[in-house]
Amino acid sequence: MSMSFYVAPEQLMKDKADFARKGIARGRSMVAVSFAGGIVMAADNPSRTLRKVSEIYDRIGFGGVGKFSEFDSLRTAGVRHADMKGYTYSREDVDARSLANAYAQLLGQVFTHEMKPMEVEVLVAEVGATQSVDQFYRVSYDGTVVDERSLTALGGDAEALRSRLVEACQDSDDEAATVRAAASALGGPDRVLGVDDLEVAVLDRTAQRRAFRRIESATLQALLDAS
Q: Interhelix angle for 175-187 vs 158-168, to 10°?
């Protein structure tokens, strides 16, 4: 008769958290910044097909870091959740907070009950009528939700990245300046990120309904070159 080894719950949770954090740290980071015209979402992502920044609903964007297959499945689930809620009730009832709570419940359930946690950290951002009501919800691998103000950073070294982002965004009051600030923060002191290294999208505050707008290479180059 074989006997299973006992592992203290505290040790099991710590091991799961360490595993998830290491998986997230192996990936590339992303940031989101609020400015007068909307929200810039930028990711260190050289791929032209595997997207880390996407649209979920009319004025709501999604970003993910970590294991692509896992955060992309969360994106798909978020789109379905938003579509169903908007169809059942009204489009105005779909908001970033409810989506973030749904993600938190799912990630928390997996972290607590499954052997392997999801190696992801996701962002749900909603652009408002004014900059003061923009919403940023960062949801961690264990279901923890953090309500951010004006900007946020996701990835392995998020605290250092956030500090660089705060410093870079001090003079960013338009789209071009905010994109350059995001690129500078993602690159850090040792790298200069160009068009081929970045994935950038904007949640446009002036849009009537669908606010998500992806910035393609030619436009992104012009924004990075602007002074």
A: 140
